Task: structure prediction
Amino acid sequence: MRARLSAVMLASAALALALGAGTLPAVASASTSAATWTVTPGGQYRAQVGNDNFWGILDVRTNQEIQCTVNASAWSMRLRFKRGTGLSNPIGWVRSLSFPTPCFPGRMGPVTLSAAGTPWGINAFNFDPAGQVTSGRLTHMHLALSGPLCSAVLDGSSATADDGTMPFDYNNDLPGTLQTGSNFRGGLHVYRVTGCRQMLHSGDVVRLFMGYDLNRALTVTSP
Result:
């Protein structure tokens, strides 16, 4: 895990307006459809960028990575989790995610990372009771890089599909840490690349590294 996501599943940043669970996207794999989950206490959360204090986008084919240091004080992710026992996927949603201040990856000028396609589904797959870690997948992802010398779209099957996916790990340790970019691939590709020092190539699979700490305790277990 390259970045530390604390408290909700992409763990250190933020879930905003309350949407009814029935109206939010529900995506779970068949292999995990039988699993049930306990989430305590659930509800609304904010998440803050974790101690690693950066996001990174790795082009899997070329092994080139764009890294950008971000403001650790920005509470820019909002999430909502279900609460109770016997829960099915999705167990929660990323309601919004933003980095309002541009950063400056090497020789690319100011670059801003922003998210769309929200709410993203938070789908839990496996639970390690020894480590208190839940692994799963974020769904319905769409992100955009924008800047004068580097721009691109991150998504799934196309630049406008809003169906990108990315694995995450969530650690119950207080206040809770959520990280993306684990050692297995998600379904996230890069499209419409302009500039970026040719470190990203349209159509390639990418991994997104981020880490967040939740603003209060959240415990996810199974069963």
Q: What stands out?
A: The first strand starts at residue 37 and ends at 40. The radius of gyration is 16 Å. The chain is about 0% helix and 45% strand. Confidence is low (pLDDT under 50) at residues 1-33.
